[in-house]
Design goal:
about 40% helix; ten-stranded mixed beta sheet; alpha/beta; globular; six-stranded mixed beta sheet
Length: about 450
């Protein structure tokens, strides 16, 4: 019996499935089985899987008679024989020691599940990767690299932990969970997670990156223009699991619905138009909120002022909210384009290698700006490293090498100090620019120049 059964639902994933399967096969914990659950692929996916099956007996192929992500995962759960079960989407990948790290904690704790953290990643310019770290807890909440929680008594976990994939679940525990078997890939993990949290009595979260979640597959469900229909149907189905639960669970359930729904608006803005074909689903979601307010399940005090204002606009007119968010994006995009135009015609050094500098480098590459000479940072932790193929220098070395370059400061918290440092080193004020815009991976989906 394998230690871990890895369920991999797929449909027409020829572009990504090799990378995904390879990431599972190379695991340092080799005592695993891989259950590929295919829903009728018409591209080369099945041929690729068949070639792997000929060389590695750990891989099994199951054919789903329904094109439903939830149905496929349920099939895999029923067929899994490992002590623990993991789920990996066929366009994602996992770190090489992911399952060894997770499984080691099951031996000590007998937890219903163990989870790590993840990276959201986006391939830039075909050869570089921009990523954002995703963690359920802050660093200071971990003790010796882990947190033990009781999910069934922790409603707030529903908003902290939003993904199935970066963990392993005890086999007999996960067999008590059934995902919604609605058509397509339609956010069926939402009610799956809800059931997991309601049933789990012990869970471990470790401070270690386990999973890499792809953001550049434009066929993924998050890009589907029926997203609001998917959300409405999934939460309507999932509501049955909280009907007899405490008010705390109900409040968090509706707040997560709000957050999930709101994440679709920037995607809609980036797509370039309001998804009018999905307007009925938006109105159905709005009606769900109105009813929840009438029943006093949720109240104004459950939302921060900005969220409350946006929810009021949404319930009145979803297209008005779309226009508001579009205006906000257009203002940010206009400022970024102005900076990119300056960078395009000058040698550039980006000062700051944290989230802001990393993102600015990705935006520049994504728009084919090849004028970046390097990066610089005052932190010794970057010494000798590179970013997007360019060296990272100390500010002193950067100015020595590129005294006439344009210096773009990419930091919101330390911008003034960084500017003063550059001026002390002799950089002219006219050659210093500030980049203060919050990293937003959705902007990588559009060409700005």
């Amino acid at each position: 019996m394998p230690k871990i059964s890895v369920i991999m639902p797929c449909l027409n994933m020829e572009q990504y499935i090799e990378e995904s399967i390879n990431s599972v096969l190379r695991q340092t914990l080799s005592d695993i089985e891989i259950l590929v659950i295919d829903a009728g692929s018409t591209d080369k996916t099945l041929k690729i899987v068949d070639s792997y099956m000929k060389t590695d007996k750990r891989i099994r192929l199951l054919i789903s008679d329904k094109k439903s992500y939830g149905y496929q995962v349920n099939m895999g759960i029923r067929a899994a024989i490992g002590d623990y079960i993991a789920i990996v989407d066929a366009d994602d990948r996992i770190m090489q020691d992911a399952y060894e790290s997770l499984y080691s904690f099951t031996l000590e704790t007998e937890a219903d599940y163990v989870k790590g953290t993840a990276n959201l990643f986006y391939t830039v310019s075909d050869c570089h990767t921009y990523s954002i770290h995703l963690s359920q807890f802050s660093k200071n909440e971990y003790t010796d690299g882990k947190i033990e929680v009781t999910p069934c008594k922790m409603p707030e976990l529903l908003e902290k932990d939003c993904f199935l994939w970066y963990g392993i679940y005890k086999n007999e525990f996960l067999k008590k969970v059934r995902l919604n078997e609605s058509p397509g890939a339609a956010y069926q993990d939402a009610s799956g997670l809800l059931q997991i949290f309601l049933k789990a009595e012990k869970a471990i979260y470790i401070d270690k990156t386990i999973y890499e979640y792809r953001q550049d597959n434009f066929k993924a469900s998050e890009y589907d223009q029926k997203a609001f229909t998917f959300i409405y149907n999934e939460y309507s189905w999932g509501k049955q699991f909280i009907e007899e639960k405490s008010s705390g669970w109900k409040r968090v359930f509706y707040h997560k619905l709000y957050c999930h729904m709101m994440t679709r608006f920037p995607v809609m803005v980036v797509s370039g138009h309001f998804w009018s074909n999905d307007l009925l689903a938006m109105k159905n979601i709005a009606s769900s909120f109105q009813l929840a307010f009438q029943k006093r399940i949720i109240e104004k005090t459950d939302f921060i002022p900005e969220d409350w204002d946006r929810l009021q606009i949404f319930m009145k007119d979803p297209e008005e909210l779309y226009e508001k968010i579009k205006d906000e994006y257009q203002e940010s995009i206009k400022r970024i384009i102005t900076l990119l135009n300056i960078m395009e015609t000058n040698h550039v050094v980006i000062f700051g290698c944290g989230n802001y500098g990393n993102f600015l480098g990705a935006v520049a590459l994504n728009n084919h700006i090849n004028t970046i000479q390097g990066f610089c940072d005052s932190s010794a932790s970057y010494e000798g490293k590179t970013m997007y193929g360019k060296k990272i220098f100390t500010p002193e070395k950067a100015v020595e090498l590129y005294p006439a370059a344009i210096y773009v400061i990419a930091s919101k918290s330390y911008g003034n100090e960084m500017k003063n440092k550059l001026k002390e080193l002799g950089v002219l004020d006219k050659n210093i620019y500030m980049y203060l815009y919050k990293p937003d991976m959705k902007l990588l989906r559009i060409k700005l120049l």
